[in-house]
Design brief:
The complex is a heterodimer of chains A (about 280) and B (about 950). Chain A is an alpha+beta fold. Chain A has three domains: about 5-50; about 60-165, Uridine Diphospho-n-acetylenolpyruvylglucosamine Reductase, domain 3 (2-Layer Sandwich), CATH 3.30.465.10; about 175-275, Enolase-like, domain 1. Chain A has helices spanning about 15-20, 35-40, 75-80, 90-95, 100-105, 110-115, 120-130, 145-155, 220-225, 235-240, 260-275, and strands at about 5-10, 25-30, 50, 60-65, 65-70, 135-140, 140-145, 160-165, 175-180, 185-200, 200-210, 215-220. A five-stranded antiparallel beta sheet of chain A has the order 4-5-8-6-7. In chain A, a hairpin with a 2-residue loop joins β6 (about 135-140) and β7 (about 140-145). With about 950 residues, chain B is an alpha+beta fold. Chain B has four domains: about 1-190, [2Fe-2S]-binding domain (DNA polymerase, domain 1, Orthogonal Bundle); about 195-305 and about 365-460, Alpha-Beta Complex (Aldehyde Oxidoreductase, domain 3); about 460-635 and about 805-955, Aldehyde Oxidoreductase, domain 4 (2-Layer Sandwich); about 650-800, Aldehyde oxidase/xanthine dehydrogenase, molybdopterin binding domain (Aldehyde Oxidoreductase, domain 4, 2-Layer Sandwich). In chain B, about 30% of the residues lie in helices and about 20% in strands. Chain B is built from 25 helices and 33 strands. A seven-stranded mixed beta sheet of chain B has the order 8-10-6-17-14-15-16. In chain B, α14 crosses α15 (about 540-560). The longest helix of chain B has 28 residues, at about 720-745. Classes of the chains: A alpha+beta (about 280), B alpha+beta (about 950). Chains A and B meet through α2, α5, α10 and α11 of A and β4, α3, α8 and α25 of B. The structure holds FE2/S2 (inorganic) cluster (FES). FE2/S2 (inorganic) cluster binds near residues 37, 38, 44, 47 and 57 of chain B. Chain A: This is FAD-binding PCMH-type domain-containing protein. Chain A: InterPro entries: CO_DH_flav_C (IPR005107), CO_DH_flav_C_dom_sf (IPR036683), Diverse_Substr_Oxidored (IPR051312), FAD-bd_PCMH (IPR016166), FAD-bd_PCMH-like_sf (IPR036318), FAD-bd_PCMH_sub1 (IPR016167), FAD-bd_PCMH_sub2 (IPR016169), Mopterin_DH_FAD-bd (IPR002346). Chain A: Keywords: FAD, Flavoprotein, Oxidoreductase. Chain A: Pfam families: CO_deh_flav_C, FAD_binding_5.
Chain lengths: ~280, ~950
């Protein structure tokens, strides 16, 4: 039961959506289930819900060469069924971390960016590690920003997320490792890693964390200290030992001890690097 | 706004609000109530439907978003040709108990089968991850999906009914199940009456406060609101009664105007709230949404009081006081056993182990919340109450006599299809008589169905006992003494049977399966500002068996002996029965050592060290834990229960009626809520009367049925008490049929044999023979009856056992703990149980799976969390209160031995909840075994990876990267 009444509209064009969203109390709805959860708990109290479901072009995955453009209404299950996405291991593993079929069917890229709930964490971490960018529209035009910047800044009132773009790097390896609290689908900690090697040495690496942080985040300092390191369990552990405890504010609703979360994060990064 | 779509192939259109959820549209606009609402937070999966073929939790989707889409619900699965193979498979594989979660689970599995025609166990379990089963777990669901997949591919499916050629002992397909797998069965939330209003009840958000004022004016002005009731309206309603008054000690309850029984809380708190959940007001409106919209507009002014949540702290001088009648918040203090002799024996023993154990507070968290629907007919002055309660007859008695003061004969209580209870639906709550009273006040039917968050605050919780345990023995391992000093937290008010769990059920059960020469149990039953507690599946025995099984494990480790051997050397031997356990129970029969041996053998105990080494090489710490148990079951005997303080009989009853057509109708005193008595009792009757089972109907769930009184189903009593009453009723019919035949055949009754549903005069079996139907017809005519014989073939039978019965067994858990993350994986679970004579093995297996699932939940996850500052329940949904999901379980291995109980003529022992108690200790023993090299002695439940990691950090055994 949703306590707060609202009106609902599903415009056919993005221009119409901009006009509806310009009114105070209007909120964009990508069809992601997290929004409904938020309206039930009162975390979202829209007066008008503007659904994007009828706007053409938001529900497709397009490949241009090595570029992959994922529309904001594309669900997790649609992504998992897509052959191009299947060639990006870190993304596939992150999407598979969400087990509940309903969550897979009714969570989407746009929802992940707008709501950033626990179930969105793995996808966002994977996209961060892939240096994804976000395509946004507002009444004055389109713009692209990095996902990392987007997660820091958020979207402005009336902005619509159209898609997320990533580049498929066939020479890079990647993996997503996570701890699912009691296998109930609550990701308490996850680590996404994408790395390229020269010989046995890491030439480029990106690492992102989720679950243990309120918003998924890149671990730039760790990336720097891992770059140039020869891949071995000992070397990775040594680098992780140097990971400063104060770089991140760690918390999760199911884990009360941040030190344990920190420990888990390091274990998962190690496993993701070694798996990659 | 207008919504149009296709539902189950039919075009549908409806006017809805923007906020209308898909579940509301299906249930309220289209009356498709097969889709159930369990959590309303996308956690339980009970509301799952297919939207354009995709599994969808309809509580988490706006109805309007399904515009122009195709929706399939459980009602759309069967075709004119019959049930869908998946529905049939659920039925044939006993995957349905109470059936509340069944429609959602079936729909989720439909998506899987549409995509994957041959799913593996792992794939099925993964797809089940969004669906909870709180009744029977997942084992039989996995089997059903595999069977359906095979059937859909045209394969011959083995299995189905396993028969031993008799009714008793055969896995006969359960009755009423078809209604549950098609969504046809109506649960309380699915019911509608003409002119029905909807109620919402306001609960206090604070745990302890003086009520300064309640302002309902804004709520009263809200659309659709018919009335708002508060305490000023209900002064004529008496407090809830307490019907368990231990005669052997002083107790401190609240007053009750009847002067017959003590009292508990009132329907609305008057001057003070004592827990976050105390009821304050009720809104009655035309729709449920309107009632809840208005409820949020009621303003209550509180003056906060200090809160006490811990039972031991609450019993100390200076703690906040809840009730004037209970100094130091103590409801009852008593001792079972000779504590002085026990302490002396402990002092003189070679080895003593002491441990504080906290058996955590749990929530029953049934997927179906509680609800009530009531109507009053002013013309006849008849009241009718529909409620999802385990105890319809006690509801009738307690509400009429002690709460509303209305004639017993004017109140009818009906139980519709009902979700699992786990014990929480075995109480009388203030909301239920309130709904009945409001229906009379308003002259219209009133329905109230709780919310998930409301359930967390007003439905009784359980366990929550602090135990100070001492176990003593010789260095060789022979136990000499066991003592426990306990603090039981009953919350803010006593429920009707509050003392039962902390007193005899725990106190007399602590020796478990062992001979312990000296044992004592001292308990303080204490009021706090928590939600009241009541029995929960495994009730009392769970706390006792956890205590003894952890204690014996710690004792064995202290003396450096094999825990299995220490158990064996102390177990009650098979030649010791009947065995007095020293604290009041007389164990009836058994071979405890045998179940231990079987479990050890199945677990490969002899190769444990090799298993550990192999796991270690994979970075896993493997541990094996044993939980042996004996659990009292089969409540009554009435006299003994009266001696414990229960103000009620506990005999079983059955009314049998054999119609002139030969059809047999039996009304049972049991109250089915997933245990399948409709089936098992018919099996008993068919066996006894030697007639086809189809001739037998089992009636229940309505106090208007022809039965004097039903003592209901709880404490694993149904089969061994109420089932025996059914057997006795049938025997009574056979006796009358033989006597009548003897008169007609003019033969001595000794020469009249009853076989294959016929009375046969043995001297002339071809001529002197009548079917039971013919006997019933002749007795219905009543033309020619022997002297003193009444017409008709009907009557009531009662059974009051002389003793309880004592099922037993041994469970073994094998866990692996990840060396780095401390995650716990259950890798094997073996259960060897003895429930005496089993009537329907697959039904019993389903109950056993359910008990194991709950026990694993307690060991690893389940705990009610309270705010220490406000006393608010923080874990008020199924995300914050985690219950086990399919992915937790390996294949659960069940084995049974069968030692008949001498306590009843069926030889049956309880099975419903008794196999829960060994589960949690087996799990914690396994975890402690895995961590034995780190000198970890005990971890309180729930044992989480975080707790393990912290303990290892503190013990200077930091977990390395
Ligand atoms: S998932 Fe919808 S009611 Fe539980």
């Amino acid at each position: 039961m949703i306590q707060n009444p609202f009106s609902y509209t599903a415009p056919d064009s993005i221009a119409e959506a901009f006009s509806l969203l310009s009114k105070s109390g209007s909120e964009v709805f990508t069809g992601d289930q997290a929004f409904i959860g938020n309206t039930k708990t009162g975390h979202a109290r829209p007066s008008t819900v503007v659904s994007l479901r009828n706007i053409p072009g938001l529900n497709s995955i397009i490949q241009h060469g090595d570029q992959l453009i994922i529309g904001s209404s594309v669900s997790f299950s649609a992504m998992l069924a897509d052959a191009a996405i299947g060639s990006v291991p870190v993304l596939v593993e992150a999407l598979r971390a969400i087990k509940d079929p309903h969550l897979k069917n009714h969570s989407n890229v746009g929802g992940a960016l707008y709501h950033r709930s626990t179930s969105h964490g793995p996808l966002l971490a994977a996209l961060l590690s892939l240096d994804a960018s976000v395509s946004l529209s507002d009444p004055w035009g389109d713009k692209n920003i990095t996902l990392e910047n987007y997660l820091t800044a958020g979207s402005g009132q009336g902005e619509i997320i159209k898609s997320v773009t990533l580049t498929i790097n066939r020479t890079a390896a990647g993996s997503f490792r996570h701890i699912d609290y009691l296998k109930v689908g609550e990701i308490v900690c996850g680590a996404a890693v994408v790395l390229a090697t020269k010989g046995e040495t890491i030439s480029k690496i990106s690492v992102a964390a989720c679950g243990c942080v309120s918003i998924p985040v890149r671990l730039r300092n760790l990336e720097n200290s891992l770059t140039g390191v020869k891949v071995s369990r000992e070397n990775i552990e040594a680098a992780l030992h140097e990971l400063p405890t104060d770089e991140l504010t760690l918390s999760n609703v199911n884990i009360s001890n941040p030190s344990y979360l920190f420990h888990l994060l390091k274990v998962l990064i190690k496993r993701a690097v070694l798996k990659s | 706004m207008k919504l149009s779509n296709h539902v189950n192939g039919h075009f549908c259109t409806s006017e809805i609000e923007g906020r209308t959820l898909l579940i509301t549209y299906l249930r309220e606009h289209l009356a498709l109530t097969g889709t159930k609402e369990g959590c309303s937070s996308a956690s339980c999966g009970a509301c799952t439907v297919l939207v354009s073929g995709k599994a969808t939790k309809s509580c988490q989707v706006l109805a309007i978003e399904t515009e122009a889409q195709e929706i399939q619900t459980i009602e759309g699965l069967a075709t004119a040709d019959g049930l869908h193979p998946l529905q049939n498979a659920f039925w044939e594989n006993f995957a349905v108990q109470n059936g509340f979660s069944t429609p959602g689970t079936i729909m989720a599995m439909m998506e899987l089968l549409n995509e994957n025609t041959a799913p593996s166990d792992a794939e099925i379990k993964e797809r089940l991850s969004g669906n909870l089963s709180r009744e029977s777990g997942y084992e039989q669901v996995v089997a059903s999906v595999k069977a359906a997949a095979a059937k859909m591919k045209g394969a011959e499916v083995a299995g189905g009914i396993s028969s031993n050629g008799k009714y008793i002992g055969s896995s006969v397909k359960t009755r009423d199940t078809e209604k549950l797998i098609t969504g046809e069965g109506k649960f309380i939330a699915d019911m509608e009456l003409p002119g029905m209003l909807h109620a919402a009840i306001l609960q206090s958000p604070v745990a302890h406060a003086i009520i300064k004022g309640v302002d309902t004016s804004e709520a009263e002005a809200m659309p659709g609101v018919v009335r708002v009731f508060t305490a000023k309206d209900t002064t004529g309603i008496m407090p809830m009664p307490v019907i368990w008054i231990p005669p052997f000690t002083e107790s401190h309850f609240l007053p009750h105007p009847s002067g017959i029984v003590p009292g508990s809380h009132t329907v609305f708190a008057t001057d003070r709230v004592r827990f976050a959940g105390d009821q304050l007001a009720a809104v009655v409106a035309e729709t449920r949404q309107q009632a809840y919209d208005a409820l949020s507009k009621i303003r209550v002014d509180y003056e906060a009081l200090p809160v006490v949540l811990d039972a031991e702290e609450a019993s100390q001088p200076g703690a906040p006081q809840l009730h004037e009648t209970a100094p130091n918040n103590i409801m009852i203090h008593t001792i079972f056993g000779d504590s002085e002799a026990t302490e002396k024996a402990i002092a003189e023993s070679e080895v003593v182990v002491e441990q504080k154990i906290y058996n955590q507070r749990m929530m029953h968290n049934t997927l179906e919340v509680r609800g009530a629907l009531a109507k009053y007919d002013p013309a006849t002055q008849d009241y009718t109450l529909w409620a999802n309660t385990q105890i319809p007859y006690p509801h009738r008695l307690l509400i009429s006599l002690y709460v509303l003061g209305i004639p017993y004969n004017k109140l009818r209580v009906i139980v519709p299809f009902m979700g699992e209870s786990n014990g929480c639906k075995g109480n009388l709550y203030p909301d239920t008589p309130l709904v009945l009273w409001m229906a009379k006040e308003l002259g219209r039917p009133v329905k109230w169905v709780d919310t998930r968050a409301g359930f967390a605050r007003n439905t009784a919780q359980s366990r929550d006992q602090i135990q100070y345990v001492k176990i003593a023995g010789t260095a060789e391992g022979k136990l000499t003494a066991l003592s426990c000093v306990a603090f039981s937290n009953v919350g803010a008010y006593p429920v009707i049977n509050a003392p039962g769990q902390p007193l005899p059920l725990i106190g007399r059960s602590i020796p478990g399966a062992y001979v312990i020469p000296h044992a004592s149990y001292e308990v303080n039953v204490v009021y706090t500002n928590k939600v009241p507690t009541a029995p929960m599946r495994g009730s009392g025995r769970a706390e006792a068996i956890f205590l003894i099984e952890r204690a014996i494990e710690m004792f064995a480790r202290k003396i450096g002996k094999d825990p299995a051997e220490v158990r064996r050397m102390n177990m009650v031997q098979s030649d010791q029965f009947p065995y007095e356990n020293g604290l009041g129970w007389t164990y009836d029969s058994g071979n405890y050592e045998n179940t231990l041996d079987i479990a050890l053998e199945k677990a490969g105990y002899a190769t444990l060290e090799a298993q550990k080494a192999e796991a270690r090489a994979r970075g896993k710490l493997l541990g094996l834990g044993i939980g042996s148990y004996v659990a009292v079951a089969g409540v009554g005997n009435s006299g003994k229960m009266g001696g414990e303080g229960l103000m009620s009989g506990t005999w079983g009853s059955a009314y049998i009626h054999i119609a002139p057509s030969g059809e047999v109708a039996i009304t049972t005193g049991a109250q089915p809520h997933g245990q399948s008595q409709q089936t098992t009792f018919a099996q008993i009757a068919a066996e006894e009367l030697q007639i086809p089972m189809e001739y037998v109907t089992i009636k229940h769930s309505d106090t208007a049925n022809p039965l004097y009184y039903g003592q209901a189903s709880y404490g694993s009593r149904s089969l061994s008490v109420e089932g025996v009453a059914v057997q006795k009723a049938c025997q009574m019919m056979v006796k009358k049929a033989r006597e009548f035949a003897a008169y007609l055949f003019k033969m001595p009754v000794d020469l009249i044999e009853y076989k294959e549903g016929k009375v046969v005069g043995t001297p002339a079996p071809e001529q002197a023979v009548m079917t039971l139907q013919q006997v019933a017809l002749m007795l219905w005519f009543g033309w020619d009856l022997p002297e003193g014989m009444d017409p008709g073939l009907e009557g009531s039978a009662y059974f009051d056992p002389k003793n309880f019965n004592f099922p037993f067994g041994t469970h073994i858990a094998v866990v692996e703990i990840d060396e780095e993350t401390c995650e716990i994986d259950l890798v094997r679970y073996i259960a060897v149980d003895d429930f005496g004579t089993v009537v329907n093995p697959e039904v019993v297996n389903g109950q056993t799976y359910g008990n194991i699932v709950l026990g694993i939940g307690q060991a690893l996850a389940e705990e009610v969390k309270y705010s220490p500052e406000t006393g608010q329940v923080l874990s008020d949904d199924l995300d914050s209160y985690m219950v086990p999901r399919s992915g937790w379980f390996p294949k659960v291995e069940l084995y049974r031995t069968e030692t008949p109980s001498p306590s009843n003529s069926l030889g049956a022992k309880g099975a419903g909840d008794v196999s829960n108690p060994p589960v949690a200790p087996a799990m914690v023993n396994a975890i402690c075994d895995a961590l034995s090299e780190f000198d970890v002695r005990h971890i309180d439940m729930p044992v989480t990876p975080e707790k393990i990691w912290e303990i290892l950090q503190q013990q200077n055994s930091p977990v390395e990267l």
